[in-house]
Specification:
single chain; 419 residues; alpha+beta; five-stranded antiparallel beta sheet; 10 helices; 26% helix
């Protein structure tokens, strides 16, 4: 018998990563709530790039980056800092987009058995999976609006659960990186002091700094469960990943998984392209060893880092991988049905119940329910969400508000990520 080993790589555009980690499948659910953290990949940072190229005027090309932020800690300590080449448009997406993208693109290894006589041997199908994706960026150029000593505030705003600020630093300051961190800490962005040690390469290129924190305040404060991916669109010919700030709070051997949607192949220009040694994979239980195989490939590289290309295919076959035709049909039917209904508490409760079957995992769901119901004083949102039928006759539900916020906070961010 000869066992033939087959490596299956399903899916989208161009995907490159340091290490790839399996996504947990267990879910914790009750009533209207589900623990979305159980569905997230906590061992890697995930980024989806879309290159919007202007072939006539290349300098007018833009890059859209959808970045999944993974964080474990108290909400008041959350802060995220990102160097950007130009002033970006800022929006939010949904963690569900990455859940679906990973389920479609994760590599698979299948053990096929073929009987040929009495001999058994392993014959690995050794494929060369060259390197793809990522590049350096162009230097920054931007105007200024409001100055304070060596820090210029370009923009301060809020989006989704976040407050954010975009700043530039005077390159002639004695220590631009320290000036940046001190100013952000003073303005309640809780960064590590050591962040200053990794910002110099970006500030030397006069890049801007974009900092996020969870919205604070007694009435509209956001918690860690509100954290959702950020969408940034900025002028640049090439996508980039600022690895040094990421490394400040990274775990050992933390992976970075990258998807790039482009009209041409994309390759890393300043990191190694790695090829896996598939002989190291445990073919009877490949999920348990795949991460180690990727790490081993990186460890063999001169600087211990590199990208493994796992897929390079057309995105045309995956046009509904994130927001499917079924999702579109469900949303259309749901809206048509409930928009016509009388906005009673009973109909509002039924709408929440029905929507929860489909979107309880999607970001913005909990906040939408919270803004749409009026609870008795002795009933918390968690009480209601966990055991809704116990309080069905005690709550007031604004159906109109629920439908509006469901579209704005829950459905549109996921749908726009697909678009």
């Amino acid at each position: 018998m000869v066992r033939l080993l087959k490596h299956i790589t399903p899916l989208t555009s161009i995907l490159t990563c340091f290490h790839l980690y399996s996504i947990p499948t267990a879910n914790g659910c009750g009533g209207f709530w589900c623990n979305n953290n159980l569905r997230l990949n906590q061992a890697a940072e995930n980024i989806l790039f879309i290159q919007n190229q202007n072939k006539t005027h290349p300098l007018e090309s833009t890059v859209t980056a959808v970045v999944q932020i993974l964080y474990d800690g108290p909400s008041e300590r959350f802060a995220w800092l990102l160097p950007v080449p130009t002033e970006p448009e800022v929006d939010v997406s949904s963690n569900e987009a990455f859940v679906r993208l990973m389920s479609s693109t994760d590599p698979q290894f299948v053990l096929e058995e073929h009987w040929k006589g009495d001999n058994c041997q392993f014959v690995p199908d050794k494929k060369n999976k060259g390197g793809d994706v990522m590049a350096t960026t162009e230097e920054s150029s931007a105007g200024t609006e409001e100055s304070e000593e060596d820090v210029t505030v370009i923009k301060a705003d809020s989006v989704g659960p976040y407050d954010y600020v975009l700043i530039t630093i005077n390159p002639d300051a004695e220590s631009p990186a320290k000036v940046a961190v001190d100013w952000l800490q003073k303005n309640e962005y809780d960064l590590f002091d050591s962040t200053a040690t990794v910002l110099d390469p970006y500030l030397e290129k006069q890049m801007m700094l974009l900092a996020f924190r969870l919205t604070k305040g007694s009435d509209d404060a956001a918690d860690v469960g509100s954290i959702r991916p950020v969408v940034l669109t900025y002028k640049s010919e090439k996508p980039m990943i600022p690895l040094l700030p990421t490394a400040v709070a990274a775990n050992d051997d933390m992976g970075i998984r990258v998807w790039v949607a482009s009209d041409h192949p994309v390759y890393p220009v300043n990191y190694n392209s790695l090829v896996l040694n598939e002989a190291l994979i445990h073919w009877f239980d490949w999920r348990s060893t795949y991460n180690d195989v990727v790490t081993a490939a990186a460890n063999e590289a001169e600087d211990g880092q590199g990208f493994v290309t796992e897929l390079a295919l057309s995105t045309a076959s995956y046009k509904d991988a994130i927001f499917s035709v079924n999702d579109e049909e469900w949303w259309k039917n749901f809206q048509e049905r409930y928009v016509k209904m009388e906005p009673t508490d009973s109909n509002g409760f039924d709408a929440i119940q029905e929507a929860s079957w489909t979107v309880r995992f999607w970001d913005g769901w909990r906040e939408t329910v919270a803004a749409s119901v009026l609870l008795p004083k002795d009933v918390s949102l968690d009480d209601f969400g966990t055991s809704p039928f116990l309080y069905q006759d005690q709550v007031q539900v604004n159906l109109t508000t629920f439908l509006q916020l469901l579209e704005i906070n829950v459905v549109i961010p996921l749908k726009h990520t697909q678009d």
